[in-house]
Amino acid sequence: MRLRSGYRTWPIALLLVGLVVGCSNGHHKRHQALDAVPPTVTLVNPVDLATDQLVGSVVTATFSEVMDPLTVSSSTFTITTDSGVTPVAGSVVCIGNVATFTPTLALAEDTLYAATITTGAADLAGNALEVSYPWSFTTEGVTDITPPEVTLVDPMDLATLVPIDATIVATFSEEMDPLTITDLTFTLTQQGGTPVTGLVAPDGITATFTPAIDLLPGTQYSATITTAAADLAGNPLENLHVWSFTTGDETPPGLLPVALGEAGHFAIMGGYAITNIPTSLILGDLCMSPSAESLITGFGQTDETGYATSPQVTGFIYAADMAAPTPAMLTLAKGDLTIAYNDAKGRTPVPTGPFLNPGAGNLAGLDLVPGLYKFTGDAIATTSFTLTGGPNDVWIFQIGASFIVSNGVKVTLAGGADPKNIFWQVGTQATLGTTVDFQGTLMAEASITMQTGATLVGRVLAFSGTIALDQNTITIPQ
Fold it and tell me: What is the Cα–Cα distance from 224 to 170, expressed in whole angstroms?
């Protein structure tokens, strides 16, 4: 299924508290993430100094971001002749990051025109262009009267076994007027005529229809481009273009990843203490709950209001005794860690065969396929081992007691396996030896120790114990 929501969903009350804190303290960076970057013009059609603009065409400008349509108008997007003296009458429409100037009358043949986007054009945050954007073009003496055609579609007509999360793409014989490519001119219907809701995005010679939800498995669909779709000269398609395809059967879901909730935002979460022998590099946020900041040592942090910073941490440092809304945020994250830990620990069905106590408790030299693995007691890895699977495959390791990885062990990922889908649930404490290269999220009931030079792409999350670091690198998976 597509995820249509944002990255995180904080409770409304917590968001309001955070907003008040952010307004009262100008130093709290997390509550000041405002857009201050001015937009730029990234593409124009016709291009600067073009000599082949057709007299019946519209003129378009594409910006680096979505613009405020009220600021992109005939006063900020202008076309003139005679070296900027005589204005060309026309209308301007801005949708998203594309602005279109449609002349009231066809442009004159063999004529030089100058177009300008002024600094009155601004993005949705109110940031205006820093400088005006001028360009020029010359018209041809021939009017475009050739209608466009649909030259390619994906999925192809009569295609079968189409994925249920497919997008529908049409390619045209020439660049199309984006104002004519909408959910009224590019439609998708289910067998029986039921319309499919979706987003239509024009882009030059292509248009993409993205369904709002996944398509139904084993179902026929029909896509249509109507004759209201037109090229930049206003020539519409001569005929409807209709094609159909059938989706494949839905693939049974595999092992689902562990949902970390707000705990997933942190590279490190300690329960009692976090100690560090410099210099470590933590690519992400670090937090302590329920203990106080005084038990976070070795980072040389600088306190702000509600958080702290350190040259060894690219994100922020949080502790339960910091100013609001941090305590509530950490309570939420610790609660989500409890849910995630219990989820990983309680996954069923209970592993059997090679998934139960693999390697008699020693992962050394193994090549592990995706799945749920269980160790009834301690687990160790005395030499390197491999996880082989695709980017969406999941590994969950249930370890009943301790987990010890020997010095120099490397965890190799093969076949596109992703660290974000690897979870280690440890019943007591975990230890990564010197120079270990490890992958995945470690969730331990007690303590986690990373010895000198060990690296991890994942997270170290401990409930009640200490997280001990020694010149380590930890990177949150993307």
Answer: 10
